[in-house]
Structure prediction request, 673 residues.
Amino acid sequence: MTWKTKSTAAPDSTTILRGLVSNKRVALGSQVYNRILETLYDEAAALDERRIDDWIAMIAQDIIYQAPIRLTRTGPNRDRDVMRTMFHFDEDYGSLLMRTGRLQKSAWAEDPPSRCRRFITNVRIAECETPGEYEVVSYLYLERSRGDSPENENTTAERRDVWREVDGGYKLASREIIVDQSVLGMSNFAVFL
Amino acid sequence: MCMTRINYKKMHYRENAQMLQKSKLVLRDGTSLDDLVMRESNEVSLRVMTDEELYHLEMEKIFAKTWLLLGHESEIPEPGDFIVRDMAEDNVIVARSQDGEVNVSLNVCPHRGMRVCLGEAGNKRIHQCIYHGWAFRPNGDFIGAPVEREKMHGNDVDKKTLGLKKAKVHLYGGLIFATWNVDGPSFDEYLGDIKYYMDQLFCRTDNGLELLGPPQRFTLPCNWKVPGEQSGSDGFHTLTLHRSLMEGGVMGGTAESIYDQAPGMYGVDVSCKQGHSLRCLEAEKTFKMFADVPFEGKSTRERLELLTPPGITKEMIPELFRNLSEDQVNQLATIPPQVGGLFPNILIAFIFAPRTDGGSSGALALHTYVPKGPGKVEFVNYIFAEKDAPEQMKRDMLQNSVQQTGTSGTIEQDDADVWPVIMKNARGAVSKGITLKYQALHGHERPEGWVGEGLLYPGFTKDDTQWNWWLAYYDLMDAV
Ligand code: FES
Ligand SMILES: [Fe+2]
Prediction:
């Protein structure tokens, strides 16, 4: 991946929120669209129900899983507010396995576990250059209940995924989670987005 | 640096309790500072975490007085570059002016109180308030108000008096510190004896540190002192709260032998009366992967070759000798400072951070715990690498820090889970009378052959450094 240290002050072309890049759209209601949508719902259910092994099984071994930070800007650079030099999540397959392994042992941040609902909407899909790979942009709304607190923590984000067709199903090959807050209201990201 | 046969003179920091003067600070309900920070019994009332009146006094007596960390100069390399940060609840503009200086000024328009700079970062020659248009230079100086001929800045008011309020700035290893206490202690006086050790982390290479990207920021529903007192080098919590480090095989010991082997608990804690502290740990006694490396009888340079300090490459070793004294390099090679804090709200983690791929490029992170009301704190996580480190190493170190510290860090997500619960507890009428206890004390003791100054606590990590944090708190709160 291309990654370079940059000053906080200077924005550049990488700091724009992109959404869908490919223009080879997969039509809403088409078979591929429906099956990928179903996969997103299955993934959300696996995470909400804490079936972590099922989730790992949905992930490709070359996955890049990142959540860049947001930085408020004004004036001509007002839309360059995604800083891809710093992340809330910066994971690969090995580190995701480490995280999920930890959840089986003493991960107090998720023991007792949070009760989560992941709402996935606004799904847009397009074909990538590599055959069998699809760019999938979705909105995520996460409600998270901790312990006996009646106040949920929540967060909203856009997810820019690549899903790859493997053995008649789809595996997550990359995910960029663009959270909307520059200062997170959630006290940690001990859950996956 | 032998720690088994010690020849020392025990000396408690301010050991004669009967000589303690009573504090003049008394809250409206008659509670005195001495009822909250109990210097005779080494306890602190849980009430300090929730009390509104105390919080407002802290803002004036601590956060408007002492030196605070705001970022790193690598964030604003060009003239006009700025970042917006917080000195507690006072929002400030940190900007580089035309002359290359770093300036810190209050982000509050002196006209009618609007925020002058609404973004978090950027580059501007002129900061113009969007309300009535008063304009300011990056150094805070007032330029003028629109419709100059009408003198909308005031009939007989000297423009020189209308600049943004300026803080005093000090750069330390590129870190930007500022204080409102313009006539107060210098930065070196603020650091005190801990400087010798801090220099080993922040002033050791030719080109210094750089911030790898803007800091992570998130909020926690707790008082700033809940994470604050932990930053006074609470080593002990690692064994239990962070036991996943042992289960995951990163630190020495196994899940079954955590308390027997107590990895990472033995070393030398250093501290000073300003409330700062650092835990110095021998890598081979802390991390599993270094356990079998033959360090015995090796010279400083040989040790550095075998086990370079976190963030340093073999190629950078000559830089260490250029920038530090021989004694400092020797310490860095044998028992480097790794975690600790600067009073009041900075946590330091310059750790080895072994990776799943076998590497140990390290993780260099600083946090500030910025007060946002009595029951709210913003956790700001700054992640660094040495500027001279290769690009791939920087990439690895960024990943190490993100994976272990801050928002999603597998170490610190557990801390973030504990602190709000302590805060909830502090509200109960009975619970708030419970005390935080700092009674497992070692007492100052100089290990044989130890070179640096300061208050020294060799052996198992105890409560001394955190108690010094509370004494520093007491001193500032007590000051008139
Ligand atoms: S408040 Fe800033 S110009 Fe009036
Ligand atoms: Fe911790």
In short: Chain B touches chain A through 57 residues (CB under 8 Å). The CA atoms of residues 295 and 302 of chain B lie 8 Å apart. The two ends of chain B are 42 Å apart (CA to CA).
